[in-house]
Amino acid sequence: MTVRYRIDRLFDGRQMLADRVLTVGGGKVVAVDQQCQHADVHLPGIVAPGLMDLQVNGGGGVLLNDCPDSAAMARLFQAHTALGTTSMLPTVITDSLAVMTAAADAVAEARRHNPHGIIGIHFEGPHIAAAKKGAHCGDQIRPLSEAEWQLYLRDDLGVKLVTLAPETVSCAEIQTLTAMGVRVFLGHSNASADQAQQALKAGAVGFTHLFNAMSAFGSREPGMVGAALLDDSSVAGLIADGQHLDYRSARVALRCKGADNIALVTDAMPLVGSDQQRFTLVDREVHRQGDRLLAHSGELAGSLLDMGAAVRNAVLHLGVSLEQALRMASAVPARALGLEALYGHLRPGAVANLVWLSPQLRVQGTWVAGRRQTVETSAH
């Protein structure tokens, strides 16, 4: 079925256009034109490319590590689509091979029904540095084994993103992962700037939650943060919740890398889209304290952020335009995954993943491959 939406303000991925008609059919964008009198549905406010999240640990009361099955995956996805996300990488953090495999199986099953919503999987660990493990389980940190190589070779998972520490995974292994089609991000690492730069040369394309759980910038050793800020081609994920980093630090990153190399991410946990106040993260209890999620030992353990709020925070606190913030939440992550032909814009041929925002940037609805998903409730 073809539907023509009359839109007051349409962001097509490049510019904001006034009074346009967006024609959607067969799950794709068919046309954008100005023949407003022939529209089927009027959407006041703003319509933009759907938001893409590279790091979703949980939502709707579900933690992927604890519930790696298709029913939990559906709940997780529904919770986030209500808050602006239309495509995501469900993320399994450092855990056993059995949990990693079960999560991969759940993603493969979800993709059979929802390939444009569940676009792949993010393995955040287990090949990370104990010194920068954060809330990850230290007992499960390990080097690459044949079993993980076989898991990363699977061809039914969509995009495979692996976060690793370059001091624990060699440049030769990074090159092999890249040749296999894996997108390698650097993170949870105490690597030197030299080690990070060598990993980039070997094929790494990004950094997981910049500033967090990585070697800091210093006057004599720039660390992984310095390597990330200096590199002009890699993408850095940024948790813009005001808790994981000071907004001034985020603005420094934007000055160094530019908005086209910063991807907004959530690092969301089960309490997003849920009334729960606490949950168990692998081997520890995590509880809500205001706008933060804290483990019993005091460290941050994921976030309460959703992608709609990330866009609002970027506009309010990071000094970027709405257009830049929307690109940071759609086109930039799509490019980081090599999916820029299909996502992050609303030109003819793009997948019709859409987010509808009020003038106050509150999520009014989302579409995945042309299908209306949900409407945000009063929770936001």
From TrEMBL:
Keyword Hydrolase: yes
UniProt key word Endoplasmic reticulum: no
Enzyme class: hydrolase
EC number: 3.5.1.25
GO molecular function: metal ion binding; N-acetylglucosamine-6-phosphate deacetylase activity
Domain Amidohydrolase-related: from-to ranges: 46-371
Positions of the catalytic residues: D267 (proton donor/acceptor)
A GO biological-process term: N-acetylglucosamine catabolic process
Protein name: N-acetylgalactosamine-6-phosphate deacetylase
Gene3D superfamilies: Metal-dependent hydrolases (3.20.20.140), Urease, subunit C, domain 1 (2.30.40.10)
Native source species: Ferrimonas sediminum
UniProt remark on cofactor binding: Binds 1 divalent metal cation per subunit.
UniProt-listed Pfam families: Amidohydro_1
